[in-house]
């Protein structure tokens, strides 16, 4: 595990909590939430990725992990897709908002995997290092709980459990394949439906 990257993101977590707290109170909550995510992506993740060697050093080809990891990842995406479809049946979204959510999903899935499973998690990481990375990845989602006026399906517990389970699967995929490619694809797929469902619930 890249300890410098891990320490840096740990130090940044109070800033992320402050961003979600403040931006959801000075902006309309849903858009404040995504403004805080943009702060996370471009003011935290991108600089840290570049500091730790940049995107070029991260292997990104899509390689299939073990069958169980692949199947569970697909099932997870399908489950969120069903929840999003049910929500959209009640509250349709304008096409442009769905498009913004797809772009946000592409950004989040790519940058999170590049940082958490690309920069922080390294080849040959021990079980303890894998667990430490997963704990930090799950832990940063606590910052989301400081947002005001944004409802998440299942509440805080499901949010954290989902992050932990997804992070666990994508950590296994990274260690099995040596690449973040599968994790990026699965993470984006999950986020597309999760963000669309979030928009339908909160707009």
Describe it for me?
The chain has 7 helices and no strands. It has helices at residues 3-26, 29-51, 67-90, 95-120, 127-140, 155-177, 181-202. The termini are far apart.
Please, what is the average pLDDT? 97
Main sheet, how many strands, which sense, barrel? none
Distance separating the two termini:
39 Å
Question: How many extended strands?
Answer: 0
Helical content stands at over 70%
Using the CA coordinates, give the radius of gyration.
16 Å
Question: Could you say which structural class the secondary elements and strand pairing correspond to?
Answer: mainly alpha
The helix-strand sequence is: HHHHHHH
Fraction in beta strands:
under 5%
State the shape: globular
Low-confidence stretches: none
Helix run count:
7
Throw out a few tags for this protein:
globular, about 200 residues, mainly alpha
Record the SSE blueprint.
Blueprint lengths: L2 H24 L2 H23 L15 H24 L4 H26 L6 H14 L14 H23 L3 H22 L1
Helix pairs in contact: 1-2, 2-4, 3-6, 3-7, 4-7, 5-6, 6-7
Short note summarizing the structure:
The chain contains seven helices and no strands. The protein has 203 residues and is mostly helical.
């Amino acid at each position: 595990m890249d300890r410098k990257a891990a320490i840096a993101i740990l130090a940044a977590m109070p800033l992320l909590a402050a961003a979600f707290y403040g931006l959801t109170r000075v902006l309309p909550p849903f858009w404040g939430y995504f403004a805080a995510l943009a702060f996370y992506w471009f003011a935290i993740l991108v600089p840290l990725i570049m500091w730790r060697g940049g995107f070029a050093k991260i292997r990104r080809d899509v390689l299939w992990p073990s069958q169980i990891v692949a199947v569970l990842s697909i099932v997870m995406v399908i489950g969120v897709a069903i929840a999003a479809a049910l929500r959209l049946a009640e509250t349709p979204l304008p096409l442009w908002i769905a498009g913004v959510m797809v772009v946000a999903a592409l950004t989040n899935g790519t940058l999170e995997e590049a940082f958490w499973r690309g920069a922080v998690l390294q080849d040959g990481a021990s079980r303890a290092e894998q667990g430490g990375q997963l704990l930090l990845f799950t832990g940063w989602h606590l910052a989301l709980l400081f947002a005001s006026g944004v409802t998440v399906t299942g509440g805080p517990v499901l949010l954290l459990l989902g992050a932990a389970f997804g992070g666990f699967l994508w950590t296994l995929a990274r260690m099995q394949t040596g690449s973040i490619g599968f994790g990026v694809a699965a993470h984006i797929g999950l986020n597309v439906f999760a963000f669309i469902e979030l928009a339908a619930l909160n707009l």
